[in-house]
Amino acid sequence: MRVAGIDCGTNSIRLLVADIDGGRMSELVRRMEIVRLGEGVDRTGRLSEAALERTRKALADYAAQIEGLGAERVRMVATSASRDAENSADFTAMVTRTLGVAPEVISGDEEAALSFGGAVRGLPADVASPFLVVDIGGGSTEFVRGSQAVEAARSMDIGCVRMTERHLKSDPPTPEQIAAAEADITAVVDTALSTVDPERRARTLVGLAGSVTTVTALALGLTEYISERIHHTRVSYTDVARITGELLALTRAERLAFGVMHPGRADVIGAGAMILRIIMERSGAESVIASEHDILDGIAWSLT
């Protein structure tokens, strides 16, 4: 069966078209566009017209590719920004017109389950469970613990876009701004962990989404983004802490000089790396395994 999954978050919209035969997935297309749908939502409570139009253009391109490839089933999931916005009905109407399928504005728990399913399927056999899967998005971060299935999950309103807009307003951010962001993130992470893994039973931290994979690419010293090199790479806490400090000390223009840096991520990567670093500190994880398979893969599997 040929399926198409779309994940629309606060910062990016992504597409996966794949053939699924039993327990095997053959990927045909995997795309990502940064549209910053959630720009300003933390402050205004609304999706802006400009953000909706950026998203519409990317979605129209995806819709044409889905039709051209003949996908039999299509599912679009919308997460943090569209949950938070007062005018989410405008978003739903735009998507339905453009894609022909209404978006599912899912809860944080549903988002966590899809992320977990996409991430743990295909992990190397020698990776110890239980897993703590963290999906660091633009507006929210999902914390999920489990082995074969989800055992506990919680979605929290910290993400790279939200924390940048709320705290890291200078370029580069000031020490005072960084300290305020750290305090905010630490309090939220502690609350999440007290629910999801209070006894710190998780044996492996698995990190998802662009902040984690970009930090991993920098740790590997890549000069260009190579998904195959990044997927399932283990990065130490020492490297994450070092890279976080370096990113926060640079301007957006200086971050753009890294060959692995997507232009739409350069202004928010400092906050994303900080979230990852603090999760590792508070959970006691000495390393994180980066996964290129995440909620998008979970959406695709859900269509079978």
General description of the model:
With 304 residues, the chain is an alpha/beta fold. The protein folds into two domains: 105 residues, Nucleotidyltransferase, domain 5, CATH 3.30.420; 187 residues, 2-Layer Sandwich (Nucleotidyltransferase, domain 5), CATH 3.30.420.150. It is built from 13 helices and eleven strands. The strands form two sheets. Strands 8-7-6-9-11-10 form a six-stranded mixed sheet, with helices on both faces. Strand 1 and strand 2 form a beta hairpin. It is globular and about 50 Å long. The model has no long low-confidence stretch (mean pLDDT 93). Keywords: Hydrolase. This is Hydrolase. GO terms for molecular function: pyrophosphatase activity. InterPro entries: ATPase_NBD, GppA/Ppx_hydrolase, Ppx_GppA_N.
Write the layout of secondary structure elements.
Layout: E1 2-8, E2 12-21, E3 24-34, H1 41-44, H2 49-69, E4 73-78, H3 80-84, H4 88-99, E5 104-105, H5 108-120, E6 131-136, E7 141-146, E8 150-156, H6 160-166, H7 175-196, E9 204-208, H8 210-220, H9 227-230, E10 234-236, H10 237-249, H11 252-256, H12 269-283, E11 287-291, H13 295-302
Parallel strand pairs: 1-4, 4-5, 6-9, 9-11
Antiparallel strand pairs: 1-2, 2-3, 6-7, 7-8, 10-11
Helix pairs in contact: 2-4, 5-13, 6-12, 7-12, 8-10, 8-12, 10-12
What separation lies between the terminal Cα atoms?
8 Å
Query: What's the CATH H-level superfamily name of the largest domain?
Result: Exopolyphosphatase. Domain 2
Radius of gyration of CA atoms, rounded to a whole number = 18 Å
Shape: globular
Q: What's the pLDDT, averaged over the residues?
A: 93
Instruction: Specify the number of helices.
Output: 13
